[in-house]
């Protein structure tokens, strides 16, 4: 499962059983910690999640900022609560790419705003799967 972490919204994506493709899930609108983690628990169970990938928002220079620290803290809490490996994966430009792809569609601005986090999670997961596949070949 991939997570595009935000203060108000969280984009989610899962992969097929073979780990070949990423499919987006409905964007999750954050509420409070208990409700948020109950939602993750249901998704993990429903999709048989065995590993979580979180987009790590680095600055263009590669330096971590405040948002990266928040992601790392959230990742640690996920590890603790669900006893699953949580990988952090460079997400630079995934939201930019998601917005670019959505602008090319005839989708309304409102609808694009609803799915941009979902698409960002798909892009993070797809990039992670491709990275893992290429590193296994070496």
Strand order of the largest sheet: 3-2-1-4-5
CATH level-1 class: Alpha Beta
Poorly predicted runs are: none
| Rg measurement, Å | 15 Å
For the largest beta-sheet, the strand count, sense and barrel status come to: 5 strands, mixed
The CATH topology, please?
A: Nucleotidyltransferase, domain 5
First CA to last CA: what distance? Answer: 24 Å
The CATH architecture classification is: 2-Layer Sandwich
- Give the tally of β-strands: 5
| Overall outline | globular
Instruction: Indicate the percent of residues in helices.
Output: 40-55%
H/E element sequence:
EEEHEHEHH
DSSP summary: helix tally: 4
Mean pLDDT: 88
Structural class: alpha/beta
Annotation keywords:
20% strand; alpha/beta; Nucleotidyltransferase, domain 5; 138 residues
Overview of this protein structure:
With 138 residues, the protein is an alpha/beta fold. It has one domain: 2-Layer Sandwich (Nucleotidyltransferase, domain 5). Helices cover 51% and strands 20% of the residues. A 5-stranded mixed sheet has the order 3-2-1-4-5. A hairpin with a 6-residue loop joins strand 2 and strand 3. Helix 3 crosses helix 4. It is globular and about 40 Å long. The mean pLDDT is 88.
Summarize the structure.
The chain is α/β, with parallel strands linked by helices and 138 residues long. It contains four helices and five strands. Helix 3 crosses helix 4 (109-137).
């Amino acid at each position: 499962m991939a997570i595009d972490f935000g203060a108000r919204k969280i984009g989610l994506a899962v992969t097929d059983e073979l780990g070949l493709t990423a499919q987006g899930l409905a964007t999750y609108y954050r509420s409070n910690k208990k409700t948020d983690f109950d939602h993750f628990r249901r998704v993990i169970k429903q999709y048989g999640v065995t590993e979580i990938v979180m987009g790590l928002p680095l600055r263009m220079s590669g330096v971590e900022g405040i948002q990266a620290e928040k992601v790392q803290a959230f990742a640690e809490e996920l590890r603790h609560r669900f006893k699953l490996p949580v990988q952090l994966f460079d997400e630079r430009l995934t939201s930019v790419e998601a917005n670019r792809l959505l602008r090319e569609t005839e989708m309304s601005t409102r609808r694009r705003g609803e799915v941009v986090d979902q698409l960002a999670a798909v892009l993070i997961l797809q990039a992670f799967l491709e990275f893992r596949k290429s590193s296994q070949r070496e």
